[in-house]
Structure formats: structure tokens, C-alpha cells
Amino acid sequence: MKPLVIIPARGGSKGVPRKNIKELGGKPLIYYTIEAAREVFEDKHIIVSTDDEEIKAVVEKTGLKVPFTRPAILATDEAGTHEVLMHAIKFSEENGYHPDVLILLQPTSPFRTETHIKEALALYHDGLDMVVSVKETKSNPYYVLFEEDKNGYLRKSKEGDFTRRQDVPKVWEYNGSIYIISINSLKKNPLHSFKKIRKFVMNDFSSHDIDNQIDWLSAESIIFGNVLKS
After folding, report:
1. pLDDT at 227 exceeding the cut of 50
2. Contact 4, 92 (CB under 8 A)
């Protein structure tokens, strides 16, 4: 396996302004992901992809070099993940390293640890498009999710004759924490087109993703309340 780890960290953030370098529990949010990645991979295989000079400076205080500044066109709200990843892969290949597996670690998942990364890696093998971290969703389409039909009436998103939540099939939700991706597959198709995907299950605490202020306050409660569970 020839890994390339990408930690995407653009400067613009609406839900929590400057969240990637905002201090959580006494250190910038992005440090949690960098520390976890360094427990598994060599620095030379880790790229923080950012458009922001302040984020770059904060990251480099850890001793991890940020090898490029992401073009502004790849730092807008409209920029896709696929383009950001391909940009980093191209940079790596142009500098003589040709990875075959990409590990995407988003800095908004501070409670994903090196153990989670190693366990997810153990599930990956040739022939897969991706191993992705998930949690069991509470918004089950057999039970609590509904869509409007052409007459404006609510119908279950997924039909099934279930009267108790305990009886519905388990449904999994991407938690945004770990993506282990075949670079060959990524060069052919974007992530949403992948077919051969295996799940890596994480619990609710470890899956916590920071997107807005409520998520941030919850993360502080987890840290300061010391209630994080493995």
C-alpha cells in the first residue's frame, strides 16, 4: 500500500467561523486530526490542503510542512471534494510519489483516533472502491423519514411493514470521519458514483462531526465532561 493522507482545511467556514484553527480543549481543532494521522503515517505522506495562510502557519507549528496553497477556485462553497483530492494527488505525482490509496481525514472529526484509522485500514483491500466510516442513523427511512408524493401527502421514504423501531433494518450514515479510497477508482469516478464500498462502524461519540455552533458546544461538553468513549 502506498498511502496519501489528505486533510482538507479551507479558510471559509460559515457554521463555526475559522473552525479548523479555533481552539477546542486548548488546541486548534485541526491538531486532533494531524495527531491521529501521525500515529499511523509518516509526515511525508500527509498533506494538509488549505487555501488559507493562517491555517498553513498554525499547521506548520506542529512541524508538519504544508507543501502547497490550494488555488482559490478549489476553496469556494461550490468546490467539490473530488477536485480537491485530485489536485493533491496530481501534486504528489508531479513530485515523484505515486500513491495507490488515499486516506481522507476531515478536521471536523476530532474524536476519531489512530485506532479507528488502523481498524478501517484493515478492512481495505484491492477490488474495493472505498472503506468509509459510518454510524447507525437515527433517521431511519423505514420508520421516521417521509417524502411528499405528487398529491402532497407524506409517505414513508422506504416502504416496510414495521410497527416498532426495534424491528426495522439497520441503516448507516456516513459520519465524515474516515474515507479510505482507491486512487484508481477515484480517477475514474467521483465518490458518489462508487459501488464497491465497505463500512467501518463508529459509535456516536467518536463519530461527532462539527458543522455548527451546537456541534461545537457538544464537542466542548465531550472534552470537558470527559465523556468520550472508545
Report:
1. no
2. yes
Domains of the chain: 3-134+173-223 (3.90.550.10)
Confidence (pLDDT) at 224: 78
Three cell numbers written together for 28: 486548534
Whole-model pTM: value is 0.91
Residues 6+ apart with CB under 8 A from 181: 85, 101, 102, 103, 104, 129, 130, 191
Please say whether the beta carbons of 33 and 106 come within 8 A.
Answer: yes
Q: What percentage of the chain exceeds 90 in pLDDT?
A: 78
Q: How far apart are CA 40 and CA 36, in angstroms?
A: 7
Strands 101-105 and 172-182: antiparallel
Say whether 64 sits in a helix, a strand or coil: coil
Helix/strand/coil (H/E/C) assignment for every residue in 7-55:
EECCCCCCCCCCHHHCEECCEEHHHHHHHHHHCCCCHHHEEEEECCHHH
Name 5's bridge partners. 46, 103
In one-letter notation, the amino acid at residue 230 is: S
